[in-house]
Every structure is written in C-alpha cells, then in structure tokens.
User: Fold these one by one.
Assistant:
Number 1:
Amino acid sequence: MGALLREAITTPTIRVLVADDEPALRAALAEVLAHEDDVELVGQAADAEQAISVAGREQPDVALIDVKMPGGGGAIAARGIQRHSPNTRVIALSAFEDRPTVLEMLRAGAVGYLVKGTAADEIVGSIRKVAMGGTSLSVEVVDGIVHELSSQLRKEEMEREDRAARADEIHRFLHGEGLSMAFQPIVDLESWTVAGYEALARFRSIPLRGPQEWFAEAVTLELGAQLELAAIRQALTVLPSLPDGAYLSINCSHRTAGSPDLLGVLAAAAGHIVVEITEHEAVDDYERLSHALSALRDHGIRIAIDDAGAGFASLRHTLLLAPDIVKVDISLTRDIDAHRGRRALASALISFADEMGMAIVAEGIETEAELKTLRELGVRFGQGYYLAEPGSVANLVGAELPRRT
C-alpha cells in the first residue's frame, strides 16, 4: 500500500532538450541530468535549426539553449521553439555575463538565464523551477538585468519627456506664440512688377530649427495639419495690405490639402489665393488629392506645384494634378547658366507647362546670369534673393524692386 502511494505522488518526469555547439558541454549536461530520476534528456542539438527541429518533434518540457550557437543564436532558437513547441519553457545558457543578450533572450521568450559553469544542483533546480511555471536567473546576471532595465526605462522616460516638450513647443506655435510669417515677392519678369507674394513660416525657438524641421516634427506628433493651418491663418491676415491684382501663395502638404478644414479657412479670400502643393513627399492617393484640389478650384483658388523637378514624381506629379502654376525647383535654377543638363531639364519642364497652359515660376534665382538664362528659356515669372528677399508686407508693398537687366 505504501509503495503504491509513493508511486502515485511521484513527480512527473521533466523532458529536457539541450542545445549547444560545444560537444563537451552537451556531454557534461547529459551526465548531470542522467543522475536525476525526475529528469529525462530527450534530445540534443548543435545549432538553432536543429534545436527547433528536435523541439518540434519531441515537445520537451524544458529547453536549455546556448545564446551564441550557430544558426542565428539563442534568440532565433527560442522563438522557433515557441512556434513549434509552445509549451516548452526555455532556459538560456551564456558563457559570460552579457546584459544585451539577457534582455534579447527574455524578449524571445526565455524564462530562465544561467551562466555556464553554474553548479549542477543549481542547473537541475532551475529546470525543475521553470518546469513548474516559475522563472530562474543566475545571481551573476540579476544585477545586470536590473541595471539594463533601469537604463532602458530611463531612456524611454527621457524620450517621452522630449516628445512632450516638442509637442508643447508646437502647441505654442498653434496659439500664435513664436510663429511669424515672411513674404517673398513673385516677380513678373516682363513687366518687372510683383505678381504675388509667397508666405513663408518662421519659428522662434531654442535651439533654432528651420521651418521644414518643425513641419516634419509636427507630422511625427500628428500635429502636421494643425501647424500648417495655423501658418495659413496667420498669412491670410496680410491680404488687405496687398496691392490690387497681387495674389497670396501659401504652402500646403497633400495631407492638409485633403483636409476639409482648409477650404473653410480659405473660402472668404479664395480669388486671391494660390495653394502650393509640395513635391517633396510621396502622394499615396492621387485620386483623393485631385478631388480635394477640384473642390478648391471650384471656389476660385488656383493650384501650384512647388519644387517641380525635385521630388518623388516630377512631371508625372504635375501631369496628374494639372496645376495652374508650376514652380521650377531651385535645384534646376541654381547655376542653370553654366549647367547644360539643368538647362535641358528646365527647358523640358517649361515646354510641358506651356503645352498644358500652365504658368511657370522659377524659384531660387540668385544671380544675373541665372535670370538671363531663364528669360531666354521663356520663363515669365521668377522668385529669389536676386529679385527680392523675404520680409514683412509692410516693408515690401510699395517698395521698388531692384533694377535688374
């Protein structure tokens, strides 16, 4: 009767897989396990692929996995074993204290971590502990894990604080603090008069960052459209000061162009507005964007393609959106007088626009030679520091343009 009772309460045998590329270590572990009545070695492997295969076939209770073995290492083996034998509990084996490896193995699903050279009774104890649903870490690595996790948590906290600070700065801009607008004349190169003014956002912040950086930052914080609309609203305040016949050109990403809020902001001044769609960012839905631009056109707003020739789709972008105005990017304008390839590209873009009935504006004109070459190519409108620098409307309106040949 006593013998039967003892047999009934005997601990179930723990089936173990050992995976390590060192034959001597596998043999030593097999020897240790052979002396334990409640532990059975059911398989051995020399690399990650073998370990996954054996685990899938044998479905062991516990797998001792070398973190540095061939075939992708312990993390690959641990993940594969979890897929093919989900009930197997993984203990990582490392020849040295390696904090990044500890965390990598724990992320891969390991519930134990032992340093090679650990005493035999501690190894067996760890196997029993994890087989019963617990976890087991060598004393040698506990401090390292705590330090690494603490550092990681601190890093994440600092990133959250930095993100919050950047979001606060953008919210400050949204409320009109630190956001101002400069305006650069767009010149009729035939009559030498101002055809329009491009509104350019300026941000006051410490450290100083350019407008493109702040708009990109706002996109990552899901505040991109809000910041663009804030800049547009501020730009519109100068409309009463513009001379008769001059338009106001505002910059807009394709995402903001598709926002229902944009038309509401622009509707009252629609006949005086040009919306410039940047070409620096890929458009993922031309049909949706075209539909949004059609709604703007229905209210008398003209559309320009900004930075044409510099971005993702070039002439295709211009063709699909059928703008009223094409702005030749500064990358084509710069040194166009001395660069045969740029002249050829600009000439093709100008011919395309002329054929489609679109006006051409050359951006970034900075020298007399560039201006002369662009005129010879048939460019009607220009913009750049050689013609007029950005400034306040109060200083620009009524001021004479510099005398240029």
Number 2:
Amino acid sequence: MRLVTPFFDATASFTLRPLVVCAAAVFLYLPAGAESQNAAQPNSDSSAVVLDRVVAVVNNQAVLQSDLDEEIKLAILDPGEAGLSVLTPQRALEQLIGRSLIQQQIRQEDAREADPSQDQVDARLHEIRTELPICVRQNCATEEGWNQFLSSHGLTAQRVETYLRYRLQILGFIEMRFRQGIRITPQEIETYYRETLLPQYAAGEKKPSLESVAPRIQEILLQRQVNTLFDDWLKNLRMQGDIEVLDPSFETPEAKNPAKDKTKDQGGPAAK
C-alpha cells in the first residue's frame, strides 16, 4: 500500500507510485429455533444457510467476503486501478488488511485530528465525479449520470462517501504521523531537477525553470520519504499483529512471513 499524490504542471507531470492504501471460516446461521423446525420436517434441508463468511482476521477484527466484494467494486473509483485491470481478490484482501491495521492504530492513538471534515469528503467526491476519466465519460457530474454510474457498478452514494471518508482519514493520519520532521534540501531538489526531470524533455523542447517546479519537486521528494517510513511502519504492524487468512488462495506471496509463522509456532511473540 502506498500513498498516491499526483502533481500536474502545464509542461510536465509528476506522479507518485500508489500507496498503496487491505481465520477459521465463520458462518452466520439461521436462529436455533428455525433450525429445530427444519429438523422436525424430514423433507426440509436442515443445513446451515451461509449469509457471509470471514476470509481473514486482523487482530480479532473480521474481514468478510462481502468486504472483499465491496473493495473490488470500489476499485473503480481509484485512478490507479480504473480502466487498467480488475482488482484481484488477493490484492483487495491485502488492501483491506492494511486498512484494518491503520484504522486500529488510529483508534488506539485516538487521532481525531486525522478525521476529515464533510467539506473535504464533498470536495473529493466532486473531484471523482468531474475528473475521474470513467466518470467523465459517463457524465457523473449530473445527478442522472452519477446515479446511473453507481447502479451500473453495484454501488450506493452512501457506500462511496463512507469509502472516501475512510481513505481521507488514513491519508490524514499518514501525513500527520510521518511527514513532520522531514526536510528536503535545495541540493536534493536540484539533483532531481537535473537528473530526473530534464531528461524527460526532448532536444529543443522548452524546459521549465528550476524555480518554477521546485515546490512540486519538493512535494514529490517529501512523499517518497513518507512512503518509505510508512512502508516500514506498516510492515512492522503486520509482523507484530495477529493476521490469519482463511483461504490460502487469497494470500499473496509478498504477504507470507515465514519468520513470523515460526515464532508463533514456538509460542513466542512476533518478531519485530
């Protein structure tokens, strides 16, 4: 999971790599009374009716199959996913696990200042409806177009708003926790300008001055360092946490941690 912060300039664009901002099977059964009634009727099916199932447990917090399905549907709102490929169940589960770990930390630290305002949520929703390419094509700026978009992708306005609120909360927490104290020197900005930005321009093409793009370069370098700190922190949370994936087919190779599993088998604490 990585933080995605795009920056646009009239002559050049810079895009950070995505932040990627995700146990034993648990089933929901019919009430005992209903099951007893079925048992009394020889011709009825007395087997349990599965309404949902747990696909993973993150520090005693269940991740349901319905959560996974919703995450895949909501990927249409992510510019890094929309139109590129279908979000796989494995990657969706990784995102949900990561989000659960972060939200648990937010609650533990009582980081209320990371909570987005309604204005911030509304602004993000407006950006999606007016700038996301697939939304532009489906005319989501209008109420009719937006409702048709939601319906065609199995979403609701309330679910989208909740999703955006969660994402903004996590981004705010990451910025608050990791960005403070990071300093970018003028030399680092100049090096990026000369070695990364300028080579992107063809010979004879007008190049932006260092002064005009320095603020954007500084932001990119800041986010790179934030991403590095965040990645290490999240990896440590995973190693310390109790994460169990029920179905091995949902687990990505990157998520497997033999060192942690061995420690758990020996009855010791998870290694940091």
Number 3:
Amino acid sequence: MKLLHVVLLMCAGLCASVASAQSYLVTVDTRDYAGTDGYVNFQFNPADLTAPAASATVLQWLGSTTLLDAPLIEGNVTGSLPGTVTMNNGTAFNDYFHAAEFGNVFSFVVEFSGNVAPSVLGTSFALALYAADGVTPLQLEGDIYSGAIARFELTSEGVDFWNSPYVQVTPVPLPAAAWLLLSGIVTLTGVTRARRRAA
C-alpha cells in the first residue's frame, strides 16, 4: 500500500510538470525561397510587464535551412540554434534573429512552460522570416502588420495559435513515458483492489 502511495505521488508530480509545459512541432515550407539568404526571427514578448512569468524553449531544429554566423539576441534570451534557445518574458522585448540560407523546409519544437494560462495580460511567441535586408518579410501569407507566419498566444484558456498556410503546427502529445507511468498506476491500482477483495 505504501508503494502505491509513493508511485501515485510520483505520477502526480510528473503529470503536473507535463501539464505546465505545452509543446508544438512547427514545420515551415520555404521551397519558394530555397537557395536565398535571409533571417529566422523568434520573439517572446509580454503584453505588459505584469504578465505572469513564462518561458518558450525552441529545440530540435531540423531541415535543409543552413544557419549562418552567430545570432543577434536581445532581452531575456539564451542559447543558439541548432541547439536549444530559451526565451523568458521578463523584459518587454525578447528577440532572437539568426541569418540563414533557406532550404526547402525546416522544423523545430517550441515548448511553453511556467504560467501558460495567465489572466488577461499574457505573452505571445511569434515566428517571422525576413529577406537578406533583414527588414522585408518573406511573402508567406503572414500577418501583414508584423510579418509573423506563426503566433502562439498564452491565454486564460491555455495556448492558442495561428499559422500561415506555409506553416504546419502540430501539438506534441504527452510523452510516452508519462503514458507508461499512468498505465502502470492503473495496473497497480487494479492489482491492489483485487488483493483486497480476495482477502
């Protein structure tokens, strides 16, 4: 019985950590610009500095887009692609700007953690692609005002996202390890109940 309690506590901790982190696979079709230079830009900015603390982590960068030189970073941003980039919303403007030679496609995972369900004043994560001048947004049916081709809003209901037709956004499911642990809990609970009935 004590073992069951310990395992249940472990499961609760794992589920809490998984619930506080939401991940999305983002795949971008850049074949119209293959072979040209430009910039990949991420921003993670609060609507207001009173927005609850949150972070966005970009990882698992893959694809035929070649990253060039060192990134330009402003605000609470650490790391560099193709490794892991972590952005926090502790300052008003948090920006990651990386020169690249575009290929046919690239993808990455973005994971939001911390308070991902704030009140009215939330935080947004945006992806934009720019031409070699660093100013002109690539024509990928993005937001005409900001040039963003994908945007994630941390709202009171969780994370909402918008993406252009050139971008595919797929929620990443609960990790397999968590499902295995949950199935183990269900099995242990069933065994415990069966033993009580037999006794």
